[in-house]
Amino acid sequence: MSDIREFRLPDLGEGLPDATVVEWHVKVGESVMLDDNLVSMETAKAIVDVPSPFSGKLVSVAGDSGAIVITGSVLASFEIDASMPQRAESNVPTHHGHAPAPTPAAPPAAEPVPASIPEPAATDASEAAEPADAGTVVGAMQSSDAVRSEQAVTVGGVKAMPAVRALARKLRVDLTQVSGTGADGLITLKDVQSFSAMPMATRAQVLPPPAARVDSPAPAAAIASAAISAATATASAERTALSAAGKAMRTQPPSATPQLGQPTPLTGVRRNMARVMADAHQQVVLTTIVDDADIHNWLGKQDITARLVRALVTACREEPALNAWFDGDNLTRTLHPQVDLGIAVDSPDGLFVPVLRDAQLQSPDAIKHGIKRLREDVMDRSISGDLLKGATISLSNFGKFAGRYATPIVVPPMVAIVGAGKVSHDVVAVIGGIEVHRRIPLSLSFDHRACTGGEAARFLHAMIRDLQAPQ
Q1: The predicted structure's pLDDT at residue 204
Q2: Looking at residue 149, what is its pLDDT?
Q3: Are 449 and 285 in contact (CB under 8 A)?
Q4: Closest to 326 in 3D by CA, of 438, 232, 451
Q5: Which residues have CB under 8 Å from 187's CB, separation 6+?
Q6: If we measure between CA atoms, which residue out of 145, 180, 142, 146 comes closest to residue 161?
Q7: 301 with 375, same domain?
Q8: According to the UniProt record, what class of enzyme is this (predicted)?
Q9: Strands (E), 104-206
């Protein structure tokens, strides 16, 4: 009688109720070795490679690319091969969240899964829950240590992040042919993109020598694993479409033509954004006040975003009530001495809010470079999960696209967000005459449960005063 084991989708370190299948690295009916990459899953923060918890044949999967899988539900089933390496059940937890086949007394697999995040049935060991996320991708989510496979791992002598491996599959690039420019030979997204752009004749000239790629003869188990990995890599190349955007792999590339008139399930970042925004709308007593900052007296060319950040930090110092967290259940407020600023970043995948830590300590140049780095990491999906949580106040510089005023949404536990509109040239009255001045429209949204209108007005006034300084 064959030994069938079920593998339930673990908490991928995000605390989200589900994740989306990006690509299976093993087909149903194929064999896989323990800890080989099984599937890439997209969450609200990253693309995570999930390793196989067993050695054996893949019998069934929860769905093809684009399928949404509930955390704790069956992701895949395996027919165990006793002749291949297996992990002892008594070993230290490996965070795979796999479970043995359910006994007859267990609920049937087809039973509906609750909307809340369920615990995987019969995991190796329980993980201690981390505190609730304080402001991640446009919202408050929980985090755990269930899976940390988004870190750089070395497979077949190649060290790369999961997002880099995903991009390589998209572009049909063999990572063993790419020279890594990162620390300790880490292959970066730019390395893959640059290699993909090379003509085939040029690629042969930049290949690392064979001696650098092969250290010693591999044992039989490693040879078998390499053979399986090569077979699955070939299958991946056949299954995966070329990414015209040259960005990290996504469930659906930005270049893909949407099916107009057909309902399409939200995935990853957009799916989480929908949940968080709905919750914020129900929880926050949202109020918005607007005004303009006259920047006619600015000396020379200055970075608008850096000035906005400096003005916001100044306002937090003068009116700390808006640089705070509010607990609506217990009616408590926490004022923060530091300004951990959430910067709203629009991307093809949806809205991210990476955090610029200790903005009150940074120089204008450091702020400029820090924000640029955060945006680049968001766009190539290499942003660390730690940089997507813990914001104390947020800034949305939507004016770089269009719009003067807005009512930005405040995401608990934060109590305020500043929106900066498009710089305009306005006619203003000056000593009995009129002049044309450049002005920045500002919108301050705040949770009226946590701060008063007077506190919000004083905060906005402090921002305007700082922005209107010549430099």
Answers
A1: 56
A2: 42
A3: yes
A4: 451
A5: 158, 159, 160, 164, 175, 178, 179, 180, 181
A6: 180
A7: yes
A8: transferase
A9: 153-155, 158-160
Domain membership of residue 253 (yes or no) is no
| Domain assignment present for 260 | no
Q: Pull the structure tokens for residue 371.
A: 């924000």
**252-268 per-residue burial string, b: 16 or more CB within 10 A, e: under 16:** bbeeeeeeeeeeeeebb
Backbone φ/ψ region at 29: left (φ over 0), alpha (ψ -120 to 50), beta: left
Please give the pLDDT value at position 130.
Answer: 40
- Answer yes or no: are the C-beta atoms of 412 and 132 closer than 8 Å: no
Strands (E) across 152-261 are located at 153-155, 158-160
Best CA proximity match to 450, nearest among 417, 420, 416: 416
460 is written with which tokens? 């906005």
H helices within 240-342, ranges in order?
268-283, 304-318
Q: What are 109-122's pLDDT values in tens digits?
A: 443 333 333 333 44
Paired tokens of 99: 């479970």
Could you tell me if 321 and 190 lie in one domain? no
Residue ranges in the chain modelled with pLDDT below 70: 1, 13-15, 45, 88-157, 162-163, 170, 200-259
CATH code for the domain of 419: 3.30.559.10
Cα–Cα dist 86/34, whole Å? 6
Q: How far apart are CA 466 and CA 174, in angstroms?
A: 52
- For residue 44, the enclosing domain spans 4-239
The answer to whether the beta carbons of residues 247 and 379 sit under 8 Å apart is: yes
Q: Indicate if 24 and 167 belong to the same structural domain.
A: yes
Is 271 inside any structural domain? no
Residues 6+ apart with CB under 8 A from 165: 37, 49, 175
Structural domains counted in the chain: 2
Q: For the beta carbon of residue 156, count every other beta carbon within 10 angstroms.
A: 14
